[in-house]
Design brief:
Helix content: 40-55%
Number of domains: 1
Number of helices: 12
Order of helices and strands: HHHHEHEHEHEHEHEHEHH
Largest sheet: 7 strands, mixed
């Protein structure tokens, strides 16, 4: 496997004037479009199958284009391989939502935290287009959500986005992996496709709401066969996959990992 030079995500540093100029329009776009998509999905159920992916990609690409954020995407052949797959990505910031939407597969399911329902339009839109909420405070409910994702992946041949860190990194760097995604992989034996995203923390610095212009690189890595995975070995597989991510990303500070 070929390493990726870190300089590819550091060739730019521009002012945040676009972020200031487009802040309010982007907020309105981010909330209004999911609401409209949700309404269309209610009156036209077939829209979930026939038109939703196009709108999800548009929803992600418009904010990136307005803020002059250029996407460099590699390994699309791994994203587009036939059959169901688990796409596990490193979770950096709220900008992840736009990037993941912009590069989403043709058939997609996403597990998202139920707290997004507090955001007007966004949570409703995600639920109405068939995404699956996860209540991280209720273990039984979270397990049921993961089981539902596994069923849909098998039946629909879809790809599922999951963040094995569980939440975005507060201090930067890759956090320890939680085991939910690995239990799902061991249960279903669906291949895992790692997705490494870099440059997001520089385009949207920690604690800022203003997106800066720049480059974000997304690498879909070759799929990992999970046919031999068992429930008893999920911790080992989680450690192995995190080591793979650490070939591209720094580890989170110990304080962040402990939070």
């Amino acid at each position: 496997m070929t390493g990726v030079p870190a300089s590819s995500t550091q060739e730019h540093r521009a002012s945040a004037w676009r972020g200031v100029l487009f802040f309010l329009p982007l907020v309105l776009w981010s909330l209004a479009v999911p609401m409209c998509v949700a309404l269309v999905a209610v009156v036209w159920p077939a829209f979930r199958r026939e038109g939703v992916v196009r709108w999800v990609r548009i929803w992600g690409r418009v904010p990136l284009a307005l803020c002059a954020v250029r996407l460099e995407v590699h390994g699309l052949e791994h994203r587009d391989r036939p059959g169901p797959k688990l796409i596990l990505f490193n979770h950096v910031s709220l900008l992840d939502l736009y990037v993941l939407a912009a590069i989403c597969p043709d058939r997609m399911v996403a597990l998202y935290k139920r707290e997004l329902h507090r955001i007007p339009g966004l949570g409703l839109g995600m639920r109405m287009i068939g995404m699956i909420p996860v209540d991280r405070g209720d273990l039984g409910s979270a397990i049921a959500s993961i089981d539902e994702a596994g069923r849909r992946l098998r039946e629909e041949g879809a790809a599922c986005y999951m963040a094995p860190e569980g939440t975005r990194s507060r201090l930067g760097g890759l956090q320890p992996f939680k085991l939910g995604a690995f239990h799902l992989a061991a249960q279903t034996h669906i291949p895992v496709v790692p997705l490494v995203m870099r440059g997001i923390e520089e385009v949207l610095p920690m604690g800022s709401f203003l997106v800066r212009s720049g480059v974000v690189r997304a690498d879909f890595l070759p799929p990992i066969d999970t046919t031999a995975w068992e429930r008893e070995t999920v911790r080992q597989h989680a450690r192995e996959l995190r080591e793979l991510f650490l070939e591209y990303l720094p580890a989170a500070p110990e304080r962040a990992a402990a939070d």
